[in-house]
Amino acid sequence: MIVWVLYDIENDRARTKAAKTCKQSGLHRVQYSCFLGTVDAHEKDTLELKLKDLIDEDRDKIYIFPMSRQELQATVLLGQAFDKKMVTDEVLALFF
Predict the structure, then answer these.
(1) Where do the domains of the chain lie?
(2) Is residue 25 a contact partner of residue 37, using CB atoms and an 8 Å limit?
(3) Residues 6+ apart with CB under 8 A from 41
């Protein structure tokens, strides 16, 4: 499945670990706190557990949005939708 992971984490160290965890899960950075990629159901559950362990649940927020390829291709991108310095060709290929 395709997933978006977005987060707002106050602690710098936890935020850095969250980014590393997303990358290790095979996700690609789209914005500073936004990742996109393909994972199976087990990998998604594992990612969720790892991220949950990093945050302060009273202050931080993490969103994991599953999405079908059809829904992703219907996504509207406006302006400078992706930070071109961060996006890989693999992320762009998901949109075609």
Answers:
(1) 2-86
(2) yes
(3) 1
Note the pTM of the prediction, 2 decimals.
Answer: 0.82
> What distance in Å separates the CA atoms of residue 38 and residue 88, rounded to the nearest whole number?
14
Pairwise pLDDT comparison (74 vs 14), residue with the higher score: 14
* Spatial separation of the C-alpha atoms in residues 96 and 94, rounded to whole Å: 6
Helices (H), the chain: 12-24, 41-54, 69-73, 89-94
Q: What is the CA radius of gyration of the chain?
A: 13
Partners of residue 67 on adjacent β-strands = 2
HSE of 88 in the Cβ direction (CA atoms, 13 Å)? 10
List the CATH code of the domain at 2-86. 3.30.70.240
Q: What is the mean pLDDT of the chain?
A: 87
